[in-house]
Fold this sequence. Notes:
Layout: E1 5-11, H1 17-26, E2 30-35, E3 38-44, H2 45-54, E4 60-69, H3 73-81, E5 95-100, H4 109-126, E6 141-148, E7 151-157, H5 179-189, E8 199-201, H6 208-217, H7 239-259, E9 267-271, H8 274-286, E10 293-297, E11 317-320, H9 330-348, E12 352-358, E13 373-379, E14 382-391, H10 393-401, H11 413-432, E15 436-441, E16 449-454, E17 457-463, H12 471-489, E18 496-501, E19 520-524, E20 527-531, H13 546-555, E21 560-564, H14 570-577, E22 582-587, H15 590-602, E23 610-614, H16 617-623, E24 628-633, E25 638-639, E26 648-649, H17 650-663, E27 665-675, H18 684-689, E28 692-696, H19 698-701, E29 714-720
Helix pairs in contact: 2-7, 3-4, 5-6, 9-12, 11-12, 13-14
Amino acid sequence: xxxxxxxxxxxxxxxxxxxxxxxxxxxxxxxxxxxxxxxxxxxxxxxxxxxxxxxxxxxxxxxxxxxxxxxxxxxxxxxxxxxxxxxxxxxxxxxxxxxxxxxxxxxxxxxxxxxxxxxxxxxxxxxxxxxxxxxxxxxxxxxxxxxxxxxxxxxxxxxxxxxxxxxxxxxxxxxxxxxxxxxxxxxxxxxxxxxxxxxxxxxxxxxxxxxxxxxxxxxxxxxxxxxxxxxxxxxxxxxxxxxxxxxxxxxxxxxxxxxxxxxxxxxxxxxxxxxxxxxxxxxxxxxxxxxxxxxxxxxxxxxxxxxxxxxxxxxxxxxxxxxxxxxxxxxxxxxxxxxxxxxxxxxxxxxxxxxxxxxxxxxxxxxxxxxxxxxxxxxxxxxxxxxxxxxxxxxxxxxxxxxxxxxxxxxxxxxxxxxxxxxxxxxxxxxxxxxxxxxxxxxxxxxxxxxxxxxxxxxxxxxxxxxxxxxxxxxxxxxxxxxxxxxxxxxxxxxxxxxxxxxxxxxxxxxxxxxxxxxxxxxxxxxxxxxxxxxxxxxxxxxxxxxxxxxxxxxxxxxxxxxxxxxxxxxxxxxxxxxxxxxxxxxxxxxxxxxxxxxxxxxxxxxxxxxxxxxxxxxxxxxxxxxxxxxxxxxxxxxxxxxxxxxxxxxxxxxxxxxxxxxxxxxxxxxxxxxxxxxxxxxxxxxxxxxxxxxxxxxxxxxxxxxxxxxxxxxxxxxxxx
Length: 722
């Protein structure tokens, strides 16, 4: 008697569905239909077990139990009740419901899952059995409901979760590649068409791509070592049938492995991190495939073609998943590496196939190669592309007609401007003993970045491009900047920090961009400052206020100073070092106030004459009764912080702010008022009514490195009318 056919659904990640459909067809399934959610197919129970053991591309195999209407809660309950759940598990078995999809009536997965759970539990009770318990974390049996257009399909999680996990990977790198995605990349690369040719992963990490490749080449069933299966507690599970399939898979895999020749497989893994490489070697041992893979600790840039001769027809495949440059500090080094790697490929790897998976598609242009095919995948939450290249004579002919070997320094307007700026500032920097300065500030509009030097470090701040600028062009310009800046300035790429600075609003002005908690100490005119280049958009020292700090510091000798919106207290530090009689430093942020105190400690400044106040500066100023000889006010252009009762706009509110400051100013005192609002206009008429006069100090307070940017800040000296 012919075994009845069952309906299955194989799940996988986006981009793999078409490959999974082919795999399942080749394993013998029928009525194979590929859809965005996965691959539907029919198979006998025997074949269902076999596919679960042999699939490399699926993440789960689901067995259909029933289907029906689900236009509302009642219909969903009725459909769920139509399945005889007591045929599938008993009261002592814990279970879980995974609900996928939503509709106008069933608006979230939790509601849908609870409805099905109720139907299951009620069925047990109605037939006189105890209700089974739900266990969401580690159920003994799991089911999935998939809602689509008011129709629901109910499945047993036949294989169990994480079918891509083969069991050989004890540890992985910072961004592990799932095994089923690695298998898909290997298929798309074309290497399996002739596995006698070399396969090289120059950034192999924990070795997943190479281990999967060898396992596929030696025809290993990927799941024979899996400990638990979704059908373990299923009452219709046929243990004898399962054991037969398992034994056949083990026998076939063992025989294939014994027949495989080490000399016929040339697989190489390279990584610069020796610790990660040890993990890769251990993972290969766990998979019992270590003898087929040669690992080497090496920088990709130092890799030479010792893997196969192009002339002997042994040109192979380079396949890898490099970092994507999403973490601070990665991109500068990646751009450098990609440019050098492209040069190396064309010099030494003629007739090789190159396959690269990346979420940073723009990086691929650094290779200066033309891809002949691109495939879209998802690596976790990231949209990625697998780009395929043939480094052949046609590619080299294209280069001869249109040279693309690398960025040409003589043709780079940015590189030339950077050299010019450095030459212009050289004498001033030497005589002034300045360690932190701005070298470039969007001097050429197409290269919309600011470049600052902090001691040995180079900081590149990308301004958000206007909507009128094509995004791809802006990205390519940034790549050119990141490539040339460290070269021209002779800064190692590991000391390059790249930041994106878009227009910020409210509390976003203080948004963290990383959590490295690193800092360096640098000197400005004899004062030491704690600088953090990694954690925030700003570094702790506003470079454009360098001259302002000196002016105020010299005026502060034997005088009292109030520093409002003090940030990290750099003005206060300079004033203290110049002999201010007392200093009150006020800021709303506890983080920055602590930072200010760290700066005081760096300069061995302590005592009761230095006060630090955490408060809303506007509110504090209204209530303050102490008078000061000097008041420095550097407010934000706009703020609507939750800690402030009202929003603040420097153009709208500057008169009110100065009127409040006047109450705290001694008889012959002076207010230094600065802001960064472009086209700010001082309301002289309103100030005159307050008995104040304002002198524009902007040209005086701009130091030489900011002389090119007349809009960097506005600076005013405000005093009482004599």
